[in-house]
Amino acid sequence: MASTFTVEQPKIVGHVLSVPLPTLTGKEGTTQTFTASDIVVMSSGVLVVGGDTPNADTIVGMPTSAASGTTGAAIQFCPFLPGTIIEANLSHTAGTYVMIAGDMFAQFGLGYTSSKFYIDEDVRSGDAVNWEKLFATVIGFAEGKVTSTGLRKLSAVGDTDARVRAVIIGSVFTAELGVIAS
């Protein structure tokens, strides 16, 4: 039976090569309130919360702690290097999306709504989007919280806002390296 999943913040689960993920340090932007589960982008040389529809060419990674609220404060983050694996919900701007078999191994952008990030079905490979908007390739299913019961279970094709595993293909690091995601 198909389930509807609660949209939760993404989390980093590893790397395709099973290598340890590094932690880097950046400077916090003005009046930031991001949490350790937000996604940060580079804006004028400082880290700020991703906000509405961040492009893959500005996405930096996930902070290891919440913002201090102090402009220029050092903030550690786990960079979204190519091959980093995350868990996130597959959804879209309208708020709900039923996963289909064709979503597996497709490339998607990143969306943001109600202070939550998700893999955005509205920005996908094959559509007329710029490659720099593509963020991740869906590679499998993940465990998520079912809205009606609050219990956790593995998502599947046919689920609404399914929790999936995805490999990072686009970030500020791939843009700097000149890697094209499509």
Chain-wise SSE layout:
Layout: E1 11-15, E2 24-27, E3 40-43, E4 46-49, E5 59-63, E6 74-79, E7 84-91, E8 107-113, E9 116-124, E10 136-141, E11 143-145, E12 152-154, E13 163-168, H1 172-177
Parallel strand pairs: 7-9
Antiparallel strand pairs: 1-7, 2-6, 3-4, 3-5, 5-6, 7-13, 8-9, 8-10, 10-13, 11-12
Q: In one word, what is the shape?
A: globular
**Beta strands, count:** 13
Question: What characterizes the major β-sheet?
Answer: 5 strands, mixed, barrel
Strand content: 35-45%
| Class inferred from helices and paired strands | mainly beta
Low-pLDDT stretches: 177-182
- Arithmetic mean of pLDDT: 83
Oligomeric organization of the protein chains: single chain
How many distinct helices? 1
Element order: H for helix, E for strand: EEEEEEEEEEEEEH
Q: Whole-Å distance between the termini?
A: 34 Å
**Fraction of residues in helices?**
under 10%
Q: Could you give a quick summary of the protein structure above?
A:
This protein is 3% helix and 38% strand.
Describe this structure in words.
- By secondary structure, the protein is mostly beta strands.
- The protein contains 1 helix and 13 strands.
- Strands 7-9-8-10-13 form a 5-stranded mixed beta barrel. Strands 2-6-5-3-4 form a 5-stranded antiparallel β-sheet, with no helix packed on it.
Q: What labels would you give this structure?
A:
single chain; 3% helix; 2 domains; 182 residues; mainly beta; five-stranded antiparallel sheet; globular
